[in-house]
TrEMBL record:
Stored PANTHER family: INTERFERON-INDUCED PROTEIN 44, VWFA DOMAIN-CONTAINING PROTEIN-RELATED
InterPro entries: P-loop_NTPase (IPR027417)
The protein's name: G domain-containing protein
GO terms for biological process, alphabetical: immune response
Gene3D superfamilies: P-loop containing nucleotide triphosphate hydrolases
Length: 262
């Protein structure tokens, strides 16, 4: 059911008021990982759009991301930003010598990669690379990692990409965003609020993503991003998107409580 006019979406207040537990961290950094074209940049744009209260496309602009790009989100007051940053990065690839290198993922998480750095799939960053951040502050490190996968293609993931995802999973715990649910189940294009009732989506959660990534069903969040031809926000889309962001922040807080150094 659509929300009453003027009523803020669930979790928007909690997200606006979020503050990292670690006092040395001003912006919690959430890294989005996934193959090219799954909707990482579109998720960034969708969340930014909710807080701008209009469709906005600061990330990607239709082009594949080739670097490391943190995006801030406008705060309650003009000129201020929320205490989190969504970090987009080059997509993963099933091919050797293509896409984001697993060593670069570790460097991003540890804070060694500067904002705006352009990756080379065949030459991962080392301490000798220009721009390498040798002594990253807590603000430069990644505080939560989120996989982004396309619901309409997840059942067709190649053996090579499954292997790469498995290698990353062993090094990095994660939550999962399942994008493009309306493509996987066309009935949701008419009414996205029925996503929890969709047998197609539930099967993809249980049988495809949970098995592929080794995460529980409760760590997988179906969303529909806004796309370039959309001009108006949709309350039901916003609920899914904000629920996912809120869970990311809750996971970040759980991690910090168990490891205050994070």
């Amino acid at each position: 059911m659509a929300q009453a006019p003027g009523k803020p979406p669930p979790y928007i207040k909690a997200i606006k008021e979020f503050k990292p537990i670690n006092g040395s961290v001003t912006k919690a950094r959430i890294l989005l990982l996934g193959p090219s074209g799954v909707g990482k940049s579109s998720f960034v744009n969708s969340v930014v759009s909710i807080f701008k209260e209009r469709i906005s496309n600061p990330a990607g602009r239709g082009n594949p991301t080739s670097g490391f790009c943190p995006y801030l989100i406008r705060g309650v007051k003009e000129g201020t930003f929320l205490n989190l940053a969504l970090c987009d990065a080059m997509g993963l690839s099933e091919e050797n010598g293509a896409g984001l290198h697993s060593d670069d993922i570790v460097s991003i998480i540890q804070g060694h990669v500067p904002d705006g750095y352009q990756f080379s799939p065949t030459s991962p960053m080392t301490p000798e690379t220009a721009g390498y951040v040798a002594a990253p502050t807590p603000n430069k490190k990644i505080h939560c990692v989120v996989y982004v996968m396309d619901a309409s293609t997840v059942s067709n993931v190649s053996a090579d990409l499954k292997k790469k995802l498995g290698e990353i999973r062993q090094r990095i715990p994660q939550l999962v965003l399942m994008t493009k649910v309306d493509r996987a189940d066309p009935s949701l294009a008419e009414d996205i609020k029925n996503v929890d009732k969709s047998e197609t989506i539930q099967e993809k959660v249980r049988c495809d993503l949970a098995a592929l990534l080794g995460v529980p069903d409760t760590s997988i969040f179906p969303v529909k991003n806004y796309v370039q031809n959309e001009v108006k926000l949709n309350d039901n889309c916003d609920v899914l998107l904000l629920t996912a962001v809120n869970e990311m922040l809750k996971e970040l807080l759980r991690k910090t409580r168990s490891d205050p150094a994070c």
